[in-house]
Amino acid sequence: MRTAAEPVEVRRPSAVRALTTLLAVTAAATVVVELLNYWYAPAQEFGLAVRTGWAMLRSLGFLVLVGHVNRGRAVAKPFGLILAVTTVFAIGRLVVPRAGVPPLPGLLGFALLTALCVAVVVLLYRSDAVGGHLVRQRKGLVVEGGVISWREVTPKRPVTGWLLTARVAAFTYSPLMLVPALIAVGSVLDGRLGALPAVLFWFAAGIAVSWLVLFCTAFLMQGRHWARRLLVVITLGTLAVDLPLCWWLLGVDGLIRDGGPLLAAALLALFSLHRASPTDGWERGRMRGWVSGT
């Protein structure tokens, strides 16, 4: 006698299957294009090696995104958007050499990866099937009726996609600071020992930003007014520290290559805070003098 119905496997929509395939292709293409850029570079210097290694780590990010999509996580949308934007910036800053014309393979690879990233964002945000699939929240420990269980955590207050986007964008601040700080180590090794305190401060600031963002965004998701303001302060402070150090230790080239991606992430975080709906269930009005809802 059957006591329970057998589980029925629900076939994912074709758009979701297409998205996971596209993400896997993008991850592979990222590695190939980065290796081509490094191979055709006029000089395989320390800074180029660090930037190439960091860019190749994005292939792991796309694989993590595949897992979020397969599990139907709502965070997949902002994560995919940030990953796509930073990938285009990372590839673009490596294609253009310090002097001369970019090699044709590099330009073709950049065009291919840009098209793949655009396709990923379009599927994430324009496909109704994908949007209906990405609705699950993160799992955590839930205490209910004296029983502790590990299951999906339903937010006490509605959280908009824009707030999730701001949170994910802010989490990129720390690595986008630490990468140029690591590149600046090369200038210290080349004889600029006077820059060592600044490089150490850069590393310390990057680590401190990661903890500040973690603290701030935890309360941001809980609907604290001051957390929105604090995230604006953290964002502006991060730019005030990182951009001058990029210019001083890495030159104008480093300011463009390494400061540009951080500036893009910061603008996206601020824009997302601005677009976050005031009807989240906790926002009562616009915050004067700071980022406000619309």
Task: Write up what this structure looks like.
This protein is mostly helical. It has 2 domains: 12-152; 155-294. It contains 10 helices and 2 strands. The protein has a two-stranded antiparallel ribbon with strand order 1-2. Strand 1 (139-144) and strand 2 (147-152) form a beta hairpin. The protein is flat.
Measured between the Cα atoms of the first and last residue, the distance is: 59 Å
The strand line-up of the biggest sheet is 1-2
Q: Give me the strand/helix succession.
A: HHHHHHEEHHHH
SS-derived structural category: mainly alpha
Question: What is the percent of helical residues?
Answer: 55-70%
The overall average pLDDT, rounded, is 79
